[in-house]
Amino acid sequence: MIRGEGRRAMPHPAPNSEADLSAYDYLQRLSPDRWAWEFLRRNPAFRCDAAARTDTDLSERMAPCVPIRLVRSRAPQTFAERWGLVFMPNPDRNGFDADVVWNRSAFPDQVEVHCTPRALDERCELWDRSIPICNITHITDPVGREYLLVRRNDFVVQLCCTGLSLLGLEPVRMTLAISGVDDYERRVKLQKAAFEIYGDHTRRERPAWTKTTQVLRDGLIALDCIEHGMSRREIACVLHGRQRVEQDWDGPSLKHAIRYLVRKAEALRDGGYQKELLGAEPTVAGV
Hints:
Elements (H helix, E strand, L loop, with lengths): L17 H4 L10 H9 L3 H7 L7 E5 L5 E6 L4 H4 L29 E7 L7 H6 L4 E6 L5 E7 L2 E9 L8 E6 L6 H11 L16 H17 L4 H9 L1 H7 L3 H25 L11
């Protein structure tokens, strides 16, 4: 069911050099909901639940007329739902490769497309623009709700579909929609960010991290180091170099920064991803 090796599997090798850190470069273009997955898949309790998944939980086939994967839940997804997911993805696959679909309660601000009847001679701009250049997966949850995962150029966009079914016999027209007026400007901003998937993005030799994504990336690195039994000082060496650590470790700033980083990363991993990265109140037991 899960095809391909993925870009980075867990358990992660212990990073100890700049070359090792380059393995995290794929993170730079992930949206907040994909960052949420990166933290969740490092959660031991989640990985324990995910171990119960089987290949028969989902059905997968290709659409007959267009290059779209069709994925549907075959079994109840109780374990997935408690983590805010539509079904249980493979935790060994990263934020780009994994078929991660968040439900509306966990990810209330996900981009919505509304499907209406379309005449045979009428165009659907979203469809016409996406099909030739994007890798698209259509997901149906256990109660029939439909979602799309659209991938291109290291970007992933999750779309929630409302209105007519995309799987019906009649052609449909997809339009962007915003349900309700709460946080309208934020939702418009998310729609605009989703359109970056159509841009002509070239890979940079060195990723351009923002202040926020730098903290998130370093947090994931810290979690991977901890998984391999590394101390906070060793984490600092990985992130900042051994020379700086030897110079500054006895002072308060570097120790405090690493302590803060580890605590924040562990909090995101253990349920904080729901509020900080998905915009929902935490629902995971024990959070």
